[in-house]
């Protein structure tokens, strides 16, 4: 036995109202927001990874996955030292976009060992002066170059403070 969908004729006008209204035909085209790249890398940069450190679109900044390797590109001895390097790298990327750590609204932390949660947080807390961003701390498989942590995030430019305050 085949089931058939029965829609009374009265439902047709209601369903027609569910279709998105494209708006008036005379509405001007909106230009896409400008993009600004921090630490941009191009196809000519064969010796560096194929991504930018971050991209600003409008007032939103997208921070690429960041590691905390030492200056010699090796993993630091302690999780705290690696977290400090990593968060300093993120801070430097944000500052290059005229933002601060307090502009971060969401962060994803990937950790090869979730037992390093407390060690990471010990350092993480010192990088903020205002509210903490929303965050996930996720266990992961191996990370590039043997890193313990990789962090990516999203920041939104805060409005300029009112000078009358």
Describe this structure in words.
The protein has 165 residues and is α+β, with helices and mostly antiparallel strands. The chain has a domain at 52-156: RutC-like (60s Ribosomal Protein L30, Chain: A, 2-Layer Sandwich). Helix content is 19%, strand content 22%. It is built from three helices and six strands; from the N terminus they run αβββαβαββ. It has helices spanning 11-16, 79-96, 117-124, and strands at residues 35-38, 54-57, 60-66, 104-111, 134-139, 149-156. The chain has a six-stranded mixed beta sheet, with helices on one face. Strand 2 (54-57) and strand 3 (60-66) form a beta hairpin. Helix 2 packs across helix 3. The model is unreliable at 5-16 (pLDDT under 50).
Tags for this model:
165 residues, alpha+beta, 60s Ribosomal Protein L30, Chain: A, six-stranded mixed β-sheet, 3 helices, 19% helix
Number of strands: 6
CATH superfamily of one domain: RutC-like
Low-pLDDT segments = 5-16
User: Helix fraction?
Assistant: 10-25%
CATH topology description of one domain: 60s Ribosomal Protein L30, Chain: A
Q: What's the shape?
A: globular
- Average the pLDDT over all residues and give the rounded result: 85
Strand order of the largest sheet: 1-2-3-6-4-5
N- and C-termini, Cα separation: 73 Å
Structural class: alpha+beta
Largest sheet: 6 strands, mixed
Q: What letter string, H or E per element, gives the SSE order? A: HEEEHEHEE
> What percent strand?
15-25%
What is Rg? 23 Å
Number of helical segments with 4 or more residues: 3
CATH architecture of one domain: 2-Layer Sandwich
CATH class of one domain: Alpha Beta
